[in-house]
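Good morning N.,

You mentioned wanting to compare the apo and holo forms, so I went ahead and generated the holo version with threonylcarbamoyladenylate. This is what I fed in:
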Amino acid sequence: MKTERLAPDDAGLARAAELLGKGTCVAFPTETVYGLGADARHDDAVAGIYAAKGRPAHNPLIVHLPDLAAAADLAELPDAARVLAAAFWPGPLTLVLPLKRGAGLSRLVTAGLDSVALRVPAAPVARRLLARSGLPLAAPSANPSGRISPTTADHVLAGLAGRIAAVVDGGPCAVGLESTILDLTGSPRLLRPGGIPAEALARVLDMPLDLRRVTDDTAPAAPGLMASHYAPRARVRLNAETPGTDEVLLGFGPVQGAALNLSETGDLAEAAAGLFAALHRLDTGGATAIAVSPIPDTGLGRAINDRLRRAAAPRPDGP
Ligand code: TXA
Ligand code: MG
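and this is what came out, ligand included:
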């Protein structure tokens, strides 16, 4: 299959909506990362996502929707969900909620769970595609399973060209890290730090939130959160003050000798936006070992460090 690169204009979005309507997979930009979308109501369409990514079938998908009303059709919305949606939707927050009976979603989307992960994206191209297609779009990050998430159409094509029908090229993603995932099936529980700092969620909920995310890899609360993930080919070492002789330095703040710097001024939003692109670049540049400067573990820094720890984790398939 030849993967089409579509412009984010009327013609491109019409073609993307047509392909989605036929049950094929189309990658599209959100404010966090590019997603690989398919009609969340149809088994064959959703199965196409798992096949293209090589994703284990026990790992459920996030459903992307235009607004809160669409969410209310699919899931029970506790008060906390309405409060958070009012504050952060559209935006990089995913809520795990009790699935409504008869919601009509493919069982493959929820991997058979009785909860569903929902998100209302903010990126204009994503919103126009949702409106144009009229479909709830199941969409994981548009990368081969276990690899670095894509923040440009080129990243998507580097990983999935020939395996998906099309990618809508909307330029680089503004946030650059995946959404924060909060489980609201019981008392609020952070499953993945992401584009909305957990401190901001706690403020709006007016309750303390355990900021240590769940990392029990034998029975992960979010089944996709296995230790090794976001993995470049190169080895990754964190909290490095100076690089070793075989390492290239991915800097943060005013450090000397960095091959790339996530933010010379120490700005976490800038670092988040450029993190995956930097890892992609060092990887395609042939680096065999990457040392990363220390990054403060607050706000967006928590999500950045989470992704870096996963990139540095031992790989099931070797070093
Ligand atoms: O920013 C994002 O969230 C991006 C863009 C495309 O929206 N999507 C994304 O999807 O990061 P993915 O598939 O890479 O990560 C989704 C995570 C997985 O770890 C999955 O296990 C978890 O959400 N998840 C999905 N449904 C769940 C559920 N019902 N209960 C617990 N975790 C769930
Ligand atoms: Mg992913």
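The mean pLDDT is 92.

Happy to go through it together on a call whenever suits you.

Best,
F.
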